[in-house]
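Researcher: Before we compare anything, I want clean individual predictions. No alignment, no superposition, just each chain on its own. First chain goes here; please echo the sequence and then give the structure tokens.
Model: Echoing the first chain and its structure:
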Amino acid sequence: MRKERENRRKRLTIGIDVGGTNTDGVLYDTEERRIISSEKIPTNHADYRDSIEAALGRLLRTADSEEIISLNISTTLSTNALLEGKGAPVALVLIGYEDFPHIKDEILRTVSPAALLSVRGGHNGWGKEREPLDREALARFAREEAGGYFAVSSLYSPRNPLHEMEAAGIIRAAGCAGITCGHEMARSKLNSVKRTVTAFLNSSLMEVTERLIQGVEFCAASHGLRCPVMFLRSDSSLVCGQWCARFPLETVFSGPAASMRGAMLLGGVREEDAVVADMGGTSTDIGVVKGGKAVYSKEGASIGSYRTMIPSLEIHSIALGGDSAVKLGKGGELTVGPERVRPYCRTSEGEECGYTPSDALSALGAAAIGSGGRSLRASNEYGGRLGVSAVEFARLVRGEVSKRLSEALHGSGEESRRICVGAPVASFACGADCSVPEEAAIASAVGAASSSLSLSCTVSILHSFFDGNFYAFLPAGQIRGTDFESVYSRSRAALEKYLIEQAAQMGFLEAAAEISEEREYIGKERSLLSLASVALNGKAIVHGA
């Protein structure tokens, strides 16, 4: 009997998704792949911890805290902080960009540092030092801005991160609240502007994310949970709180990523193609599945006007949700969104609000959302302007939302299965030619509860036909030599070590590395002399996760 209890304690996870309107929670059996219980409560935007605490407390009514192996959180906190300009001030250090003013100008058109230092240094495309690093200027700047947040970007740092690492050491010695180096976020990929912007935004989110992590961990401890507290990244993988605090920008699209994963699980998507739409209060996020796997963005996550190097699912968002503002033009034309307002059904008399698709459903009795009476009166008022009844107006709004949802789903051009999830979507999907799985309203929390590790990295080995050397560019250094087999084997071992170490920092101590390769030759001959490059594609795997 005791052994049976111990086995059971290795199966349960809790997934909590903090959305714009609601906070959803799921108690999930990972072995049997089933939902044990779920909760949906209004999100407290003034204190996300309060929403998480409420969801957690209710879920633990049906489980012993010792049975929980992981508490997984997905949240829009990072996205909202960036879009609302609530990130912390960041001091920016640019190394080696003095001879490239066009790159420097583009960086400064994108971000606004609290303080800026531009110094000599950096490397070339082969990882060789262009100029010595100005350590004295760095030390002065670090002392002047001590105690704040920093971002450091050096020219060609993915090919050689030495100057960024030295600068970070000088800044830490002077004292700082947090620091991000460009090479840490790039994972061997080149693009000076994206790399710098990514590092800058990451540092700006450290303060607000640290508060969230501390709050969640406090909630977990207060309920007697001794399991890891994990956070969802934008690629739907999990990382521990320590990793999330270091790289908070990686959580920007954790909500949509969770809903994609949850929709695929609830919809039984295995090896087929599918289009997934997740409708929330503010927007509808649409993703594509190919051969049973979600499609990833080649360009990295985009947040507003920011373009980053953060790994992310390919998500297309439209301003259509349950709380989108419904408006009537002078000619009686009906529009939905893009603004969001508080629905009549969720407010009291005298509070500021507006008509929404949620009000249409409430007036029709199609969903139990707050006060149906207030929605019905508002429907009557709006309908009167068009010369139709309250019910007819509500049906017009419902039809317009269904039409737009259908257009968005078919706009991908994919002749594949269509799956809709999200709290309000069931009432609008009837005219959108798609299926709505059971428990669709809590898909994001299901996705959070069922997520695991996903970590990949590519190492490029380039053949220099000028000096005969092979150069391997690793995430934290480089290997070079004339003996290809030696460079190749050392690079492969270094990549495997890097992936396993990174997985351990993410909270996965029993990960293995899986490495594939792609070779590129000059001309038709396949020989060492014509070998141009080798790409080692590494992936960390947790078997049974």
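Researcher: Okay. Second chain, same rules.
Model: Second chain and its structure:
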Amino acid sequence: MPIFNNYKHVFTPIKVGRTVLKNRIEFAPMVCDFTNCLGEATQNYVDFVESQAESGVALIHLGATPVNWEHAVDYPSELDVTNELKINSLGLLAEAAHRHGAKLSVELVHAGRGVHPRYLKGEWGLSASSIPVPGSYPYIKEMDQKDIDKVINDYVDCTKRLERCGFDGVLIHGAHGNLIAQFLSPMTNHRHDIYGGSFENRCRFPLMLLKAVREAVRPDFIVELRISGDEILPEGMRIDEVIEFLKLAQEYIDLVTISAGLIVDPRAQFYCMPPYFRPRGANVPYARAVKQCPDIHIPVSVVGGIDVDMAEKIIAEGSADMVAIARGLLADPDMIKKCYRGKSEEVRPCLRCWGCAGNYASHVQCAVNPALGRTGRYAKVQKAEEKKKVVVIGGGVAGCQAAQTLVKRGHEVILFEKSSTLGGHLNDINKLPFKEDLLRYTNWLINTTMKCGADIRLNTEATVENVMAENPDAVVVATGSIPARPPIPGIDNPKVVNVLDADSGRKKISGKVVVCGGGSSGCESGLALAMQGCDVTIVDMIPVSEFASDMMDLTRKNLFHLLNEYKVKLLGERLVRSINDQGVVVERKDWEYETLEADYVVEALGMKSNNELAEKFKELLPDVYVVGDADEVKNIKRANLTAYDYCCNI
């Protein structure tokens, strides 16, 4: 009999308090936006929780859930656990988790000074001290004893309600600069009463809250705490004080999860939920310090870009007892099962792009898993009623997604790719030093598409003649995009290098570099060149405040932090007029011209759809679908979504 499970630690049970969890993996909390306008769980939410439970995790945490709706809310579309009239939907969530042997918990939060005025009922936000977040809502009131008593009662009330609705625990959010952390941290607690000043006083409110929650529920109800091992900013909490606090708090909690950073402060937000610029497992050293403290006796979990292989190593080396994973399980809900069965190479990698974070107007989605959060015919690929012959033109992201989806539908699929490999432009941009996640995804995409059952024809350029010779029922055009190359005088100068040639390393660049284009590709290319020792300037006609505006907010903040660290100069509101042997001639807002000296110029002035073939086929066939960049140049997420959606309907 073959041995499937090569993981000796991560899949073993663990006792947390008085509850035995079936393995060492938690589904880390994230808001999914599947509530209605009343904060009730929709059927989408129930389905989403059930899919989380199906993944095989031991414990699921529903993301940031406010303990009151007056001043605790930190995000729209959060679940309402404060109202007896809304308990029906809560019970359905618990039932969905338990059907697959998972335990269910809720991350209870109070935003404190991080509250946004659009969610605030009243004029004032509450915090340990009257210290607003820099550049944010200024009307913050220092909590008095009445406020403190009410907030503690709110936590207790919500916890007891969740227990009655069949939940197995709560996760008290004391990390990322939320209210509990605002009392603990010397950076935000400047009080002069029994709740401020000394370390003992700063711990008083958090300990009172944890004690009240613990005493309000049955002994086997899990009380977990999330805390930042380091708040990153000056005067913030450091790991030594975190350990001292946990020595006291462990009397009231069953498990602690270690994170880092401050979500309520833009200077440290990207440490909380690290994007691809930051290393995976960055919080492990903090967790290790807690775990190896001889005076701490509760289990320790850690979060931050972790996969199953990393989890096994972390637990084996004694850095933590458990791990919390969210994005990796969104990218591939079958990650745990694949690893358990010895097929870790089949796991669809997470890009850590934060495309799953939404945009305040849509539910949770994933750049690489277009089925995430969907219901009905899009939740899983359904077999087609009638088998068809479909030709896919192009083997980039959209083409590969189309081929895989169509094969699962039961169609006969032929894919034409004019180059010698699949992957399209991914093969250029995955060479950047911070694109390890994208490189892993590229390899996965190529391997899974080559094995999916489609007839893959590399080194074959699609023409009307050879496509129509196949007598297809439908054609999917996924021909991608090409550089826009606007008619700038001197753009053909030998010192000008296209961004794809720069990123891929096909052209070697050194010395002074001017990157023309402040979009995400230009900014990332400029950062990579600066990391290699170049003196980099990025210029664009848009203001610097709009550079890389197509990125997710957290990822963008991390990018700008690194651009500053590597001394990349950002010049906005300058129109590129020409390029010559001296460099780039730009026109400023005052209509004056200046020359930016450069040894090399990187042209990152955008891409345009390459869709000429589409119009030709539309004259010959009724079923022609244009997907990905061939339809609209945007990103990996849209390429996968359009290809998946269209192909689910063929």
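Researcher: What stands out in the second chain?
Model: The longest strand covers residues 59-66. Additionally, The mean pLDDT is 95.
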